[in-house]
Amino acid sequence: MMKYAIVRRARLDLRDGAWYFGNQALARIMKSKALVVSILACLAAAWLVPASSAQDKVQDPAAHEYVVRAITLAITVQDSKGRFVNNLTEKDFAIFENNKKKPITYFMHDFGAPLSLTVLLDVSGSMALEGKLADCKVVLRDLAARVLRPRDEIGLLLFADGQVEVAAKHSINKDEFLRVLEKTEAYGQTALNDAVAVSPEFATRAKNEKRALLLITDGIENDSQSTPEQALEIARRVDVPIYTIGYKIPRNEQLAAHNRSGVLTAEGIVATLDKFSRATGGKAWFLNELADLAEVVREIKAEQAHQYIIGYTSYQDTADLYRWIRVTTPSYKHKIRTRQGY
């Protein structure tokens, strides 16, 4: 297995096909991808116009740089009673980016499409208390062995002590996931924000179009270099919904031993975890019982079958720092969940 310090080590490791990086490196990689597209667009424009005209555009201080991106959304639609809506077609959806309607370029709604699930599991020392990690292992064993279908793939990331470990790469063979999970033990402190910042990029490397990230944690944060806002800024740029389970979150009086900054509260933990999920199109649950944990994990898996995968092309002025996304359907009664922007 490979362990990589997050944030503290801002580099990309490609040895033996392995990879992982801190959020600073992720920001640079995303910027470089955008730059490549921008350069290609500029070159294409130069080929299509006279040299003098192209030169004028470069020298024009009012000129804008544009970047072309293919955006993918995982969309969940429910009615007023919480039932999944599965009879919508491409024409029923309207996508808006910064209030500008975007033509849909891709549409998929397939109950049988395989899922790529990335489990991001908190294995810090606090997860050893009250049987939290033991309960998670029971539920995750059932998820891999019984809930997921043969074509579904699963990967495992473990985080503690400022590190994220790629414990099991995405695979339809669940044996490695189960083997690693069985011997996993809790240790160290929790860099929750840092883990959330880097893990969605790993999730995008999975092969299936339907992807999801399942974060299970008690929410204690005492070792990150990034803030929740910084982590969210990076995570929401990746088209993977984060489903969060806050399991046995400590009460405020129990948090005193873990409260490095003095501002950690149970209410703050709930708000942060909920923000991670809502912004990326996922959902958050806060549980205290093993039976509830098992039920929610199955619910998350079931939701994937009902999701719509929709794509569009965004031509972005690089002066715009954030793009809000809004999805509508013909019925005002529909509850639509997808990522809020990027």
- The average pLDDT value, as a whole number, equals 83
Distance between the termini: 32 Å
Tell me the CATH superfamily of the domain at 115-306.
von Willebrand factor, type A domain
DSSP summary: helix tally:
8
Q: What order do the SSEs take from the amino end to the carboxyl end, as H and E?
A: EHHEEEEEHEEHHEHEHEHEEE
Q: How is the CATH topology of the domain at 115-306 named?
A: Rossmann fold
> What is the spatial order of strands in the main beta sheet?
1-8-7-6-9-10-11
Count of β-strands: 14
Helix content: 25-40%
Radius of gyration over alpha carbons?
21 Å
Shape: globular
User: What structural class should be given to the helix and strand makeup?
Assistant: alpha/beta
List its salient traits.
single chain; 342 residues; alpha/beta; Rossmann fold; seven-stranded mixed β-sheet; four-stranded antiparallel β-sheet; 8 helices; 14 strands; 26% strand
